């Protein structure tokens, strides 16, 4: 089967959707399918052969964050040309109502189209304002997937219809066998944060507020912080006594991320909201690392209400410190969470999850119709000023 996948967000920026798309592509190719991925790209060098550059992204506010997407005349041309040359049996778009390549693909394509929803939000002014525009794309879909119950509820509330629940996957072997980082001293207790340090909903400020209590109870603790942001400005704003304990790794490759997760004792996810699933929790568990996470709904679901990872009250630094100290101070408790996490993560291995995705593809390609460009989609594009 020839599969075209659209990722709306920049391939250069770390994120759950981008990781999902990359892993799905590799899993499909591992099952013998031919895959082409279209995504915005900032740096066009060293791209995998199956990735097509969908143009340079720009930053726009979206879902409580800043998304790097591509839209406009060039984006419309790129999407149309990629579909025309692809001869795809099925088109799989991710976040189909996010502004950019995914929505454009829905507009200009005709045939078997599957969409996956990742985002979760109780209210969306963008979706509310653009309801009728979004519907012109939604009516083209042959199949719908949601990665979580929270994402499915967002779809139902804002756009109607329903979706098959297929969770995010993780390449378990990549994390469980990753080499450890030499910079992390295995003789000292360690914790890790992963995410944009300047994005409030990732909760870095919550961790920093908890850190003095953690240091008081565990004086030799190491803190590893992975993710982009203005690190020099951040260091300058921190208490020097706390900053000296933190190893800021900045932006890393997927391989380096796996090694970082594999190297620490506890992964801390202090997110304050806006998460529909929590793929990084699964990645940490795949690395056989114990997890401490805020009790937002998506994280509670992944961690089975505290069975496969410790939960704390969201936005409560004292509660976060208590859980981190408990795990760092008790190897037996930490080992139990590692074991439960390893059990849980087997359900999310891409070797298992990809079969469900393929089943959706097969259900929409029964008639043998190919994906083609659609004249009506081109007209809609012109009305929106997004076409050549």
Describe this structure in words.
The protein has 388 residues and is an alpha/beta fold. The protein folds into 2 domains: 2-169 and 350-383, Glycogen Phosphorylase B (Rossmann fold, 3-Layer(aba) Sandwich), CATH 3.40.50; 172-347, Rossmann fold (3-Layer(aba) Sandwich). Helix content is 43%, strand content 18%. It has helices at residues 16-30, 73-86, 101-108, 125-129, 131-138, 149-159, 172-176, 204-217, 231-237, 240-243, 254-263, 279-286, 297-302, 317-329, 331-345, 350-364, 375-383; strands spanning 2-6, 34-39, 51-53, 58-62, 65-69, 90-94, 109-110, 113-117, 143-146, 164-165, 190-194, 222-226, 246-250, 266-269, 290-294, 310-312, 372-373. The strands form 4 sheets. A 7-stranded parallel beta sheet has the order 3-2-1-6-8-9-10, with helices on both faces. Strands 13-12-11-14-15-16 form a 6-stranded parallel beta sheet, with helices on both faces. Strand 9, helix 6 and strand 10 (164-165) form a beta-alpha-beta unit. Helix 1 (16-30) crosses helix 16 (350-364), helix 2 packs across helix 3 (101-108) and helix 3 (101-108) crosses helix 5. It is globular and about 65 Å long. Residues 377-388 have low confidence and may be disordered.
By DSSP (H or I, 4+ residues per run), the number of helices equals: 17
- Give the domain tally: 2
Q: State the share of residues found in helices, binned by percent.
A: 40-55%
Q: Can you tell me the residue ranges where pLDDT is under 50 for at least 5 consecutive residues? A: 377-388
Radius of gyration: 21 Å
Q: How would you sum up the major sheet?
A: 7 strands, parallel
Q: Class of the largest domain in CATH?
A: Alpha Beta
Mean pLDDT: 88
Based on Cα principal axes, name the global outline. Answer: globular
Number of strands: 17
Distance between the termini: 30 Å
CATH topology of the largest domain: Rossmann fold
């Amino acid at each position: 089967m020839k599969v075209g996948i659209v990722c709306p967000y920049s391939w250069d920026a770390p994120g759950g959707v981008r990781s999902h798309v990359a892993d799905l592509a590799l899993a499909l190719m591992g099952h013998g399918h031919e895959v082409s991925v279209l995504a915005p790209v900032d740096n066009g060098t060293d791209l995998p052969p199956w990735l097509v550059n969908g143009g340079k992204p720009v930053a726009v506010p979206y879902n409580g964050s800043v998304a790097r997407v591509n839209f406009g005349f060039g984006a419309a041309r790129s999407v149309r040309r990629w579909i025309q040359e692809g001869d795809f049996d099925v088109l799989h778009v991710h976040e189909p109502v996010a502004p950019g390549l995914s929505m454009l693909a829905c507009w200009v394509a005709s045939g078997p189209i599957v969409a996956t929803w990742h985002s979760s939000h109780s209210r969306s002014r963008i979706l509310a304002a653009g309801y009728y525009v979004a519907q012109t794309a939604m009516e083209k879909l042959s199949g719908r997937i949601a990665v979580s119950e929270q994402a499915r509820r967002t779809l139902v509330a804002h756009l109607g219809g329903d979706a098959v629940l297929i969770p995010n996957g993780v390449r378990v072997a990549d994390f469980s066998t990753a080499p450890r980082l030499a910079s992390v001293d295995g003789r000292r207790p360690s914790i890790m944060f992963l995410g944009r340090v300047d994005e409030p909903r990732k909760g870095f400020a919550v961790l920093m507020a908890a850190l003095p209590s953690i240091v008081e109870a565990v004086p030799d603790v190491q803190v590893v912080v992975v993710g982009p942001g203005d690190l020099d400005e951040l260091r300058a704003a921190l208490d020097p006594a706390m900053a000296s304990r933190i190893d800021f790794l900045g932006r890393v490759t997927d391989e380096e991320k796996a090694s970082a997760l594999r190297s620490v004792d506890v992964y801390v996810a202090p997110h304050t909201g806006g998460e529909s699933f929590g793929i990084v929790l699964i990645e940490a568990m795949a690395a056989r690392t114990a997890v401490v996470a805020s009790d937002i709904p998506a994280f509670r679901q992944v961690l089975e209400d505290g069975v496969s990872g410790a939960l704390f009250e969201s936005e409560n630094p004292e509660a976060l410190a208590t859980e981190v100290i408990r795990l760092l101070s008790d190897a037996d408790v930490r080992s139990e969470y590692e074991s439960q996490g390893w059990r849980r993560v087997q359900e999310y291995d891409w070797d298992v999850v990809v079969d469900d995705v393929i089943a959706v593809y097969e259900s929409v390609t029964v008639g043998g119709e190919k994906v083609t460009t659609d004249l009506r989609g081109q007209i809609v594009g012109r009305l929106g000023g997004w076409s050549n």
